[in-house]
Design a protein that fits this description.
Length: 153
């Protein structure tokens, strides 16, 4: 069967976020019914043309179990990326977990840069300017919405 392995042994709460333009962090929790010695391994494929790669830098919990991965130099393509986390244990077969993710949907945008404020007391107005934040994905011309919070002192 496709889902060979003990029920409840696959990872749970898998989530990823892209930040600082090219870093990606993925985390998960061990399966509720996974044996204590279960070790998990993450593989991912950024697009169908690229080969599947294992995580190079695992985040470990206190018991030295892999519970996440940090990726560097991630670029966001137009296809969904494929993630697979499988596990191994001496005692039993572990179910795998897999998911396709649109990377642009998990990008945490940087704040705008080069913010300048010029106020004219005579006209009683201010001009606020900034540069669009750097983004990792290719839809760079998408519309950005900004919210300015002005507090008078």
């Amino acid at each position: 069967p496709v889902f060979a392995g003990m029920n409840g042994s696959a990872i749970e709460n898998f989530s990823c976020v892209i930040y600082n333009i090219f870093l990606m962090n993925c985390t998960w929790q061990p399966g509720r019914h996974a044996p204590a010695d279960t070790q998990y391994f993450l593989y991912w494929q950024n697009s169908r043309n690229e080969e599947e790669m294992e995580c190079e830098l695992y985040i470990k919990d206190d018991n030295c179990r892999n519970m996440g991965c940090v990726f560097q130099n991630v670029s966001i393509g137009t296809e969904k990326a494929y993630f697979l986390v499988n596990g191994s244990s001496k005692d039993s077969l572990i179910q795998f977990y897999d998911e396709y993710i649109d990377l642009y949907k998990i990008e945490k945008l940087m704040p705008p840069s080069n913010i300048t404020v010029n106020c004219d007391e005579i006209k009683n107005d201010c001009i606020i300017q900034w540069h669009q934040p750097q983004v990792s994905h290719s839809n760079k011309d998408k519309c950005f919405k900004y919210e300015i919070n002005i507090r008078y002192k």
